[in-house]
Amino acid sequence: QVQLVESGGGLVQAGGSLRLSCAASGRTFRLDVMAWFRQGAGKEREFVAAISQSGSITKYGDSVKGRFTIARDNAKNTVTLQMSSLKPEDTAVYYCARSLRRTIEAGREMYDVWGQGTQVTVSS
């Protein structure tokens, strides 16, 4: 069974930075499109960023574009999310996810494996 484990969440002040990591088990990580989603309290789960198998293509949600950077290291089975210029609106549980598809998708229904999530809280 493929498992994803997020880490790196915490409490930061607005304008600060934080880097999240996702460690993936399994033998086919290099073949998977990976993504980050987030879910604020009382909110729907929202697409944040996705990255292609080789890392050559990325996609970002409009709310984080220009501030967040997704990357991957296939040799280490990891995906990271570098978050900068954080805003209180970024406060959420952040989830790493594996896609069902071979191409980048923003819909959460396209992802079949999810991590447990890591809390990011941005104070104003």
3D architecture notes:
The chain is mainly beta and 124 residues long. The protein is built from no helices and 11 strands. The protein has strands at 4-7, 10-13, 18-24, 34-39, 46-51, 58-60, 68-73, 78-83, 92-99, 111-114, 118-123. Strand 5 (46-51) and strand 6 (58-60) form a beta hairpin. The protein starts with a strand and ends with a strand. The mean pLDDT is 97.
Question: What is the overall pLDDT average?
Answer: 97
| Helix segment tally | 0
Question: What general outline do the C-alpha atoms trace?
Answer: globular
Specify the structural class. Answer: mainly beta
The radius of gyration over CA amounts to 13 Å
The low-pLDDT segments are none
Task: Tell me the span between the first and last alpha carbons.
Answer: 40 Å
Order of SSEs, N→C? EEEEEEEEEEE
Largest sheet: 7 strands, mixed
Helicity range of the residues? under 10%
* Fraction of residues in β-strands: over 45%
Number of strands: 11
Index terms:
four-stranded antiparallel sheet, 124 residues, seven-stranded mixed sheet, 11 strands, mainly beta, 48% strand
Would you spell out the secondary-structure blueprint of this structure?
Elements: E1 4-7, E2 10-13, E3 18-24, E4 34-39, E5 46-51, E6 58-60, E7 68-73, E8 78-83, E9 92-99, E10 111-114, E11 118-123
Parallel strand pairs: 2-11
Antiparallel strand pairs: 1-3, 3-8, 4-5, 4-9, 5-6, 7-8, 9-10, 9-11
Summary, kept brief:
The chain is mainly beta. Helix content is 0%, strand content 48%.
